[in-house]
Specification:
- This protein has 2 helices and 5 strands, in the order βββββαα.
- The protein is elongated and about 105 Å long.
- By secondary structure, it is an alpha+beta fold.
- The relative contact order is 0.08.
- The longest helix is centred in the C-terminal third of the chain and has 48 residues.
Amino acid sequence: MLIYCFDEATKKFAYTDVIDDSAQVPENATTVAPVNADGTGMYAPTWNGTNWVPMTKEDFEKEFAQPQRPDNVPAVTPAEKQEAQQMLAVAKLRADVDALKKSQEQGAAVLATLMKQQANNAKGGN
């Protein structure tokens, strides 16, 4: 059976657990699901001994909401964003150039090997 456990001190929902159907429900748990009448979830529900009482959305947001950006961090300006994009583009171009150089070096090495083999073949044919 599925049980819904709550903190013994605060009575706030803590976690769910599964126990044997014949087992006794612990004192810090209930089989009553912490959902609204329409089946939607609750904001930080608290057990009142009979049913779950949800926190209001406003209170939940005050208590648990995290700021998206700390107050002391300035917003990124469009110019800074453009500069960052340009830096990424330059870094990609540098990587592409390095890859082309490596490819060219490998091609030169293959060409040198072929020319050496051709010279050796020419010596052996005379």
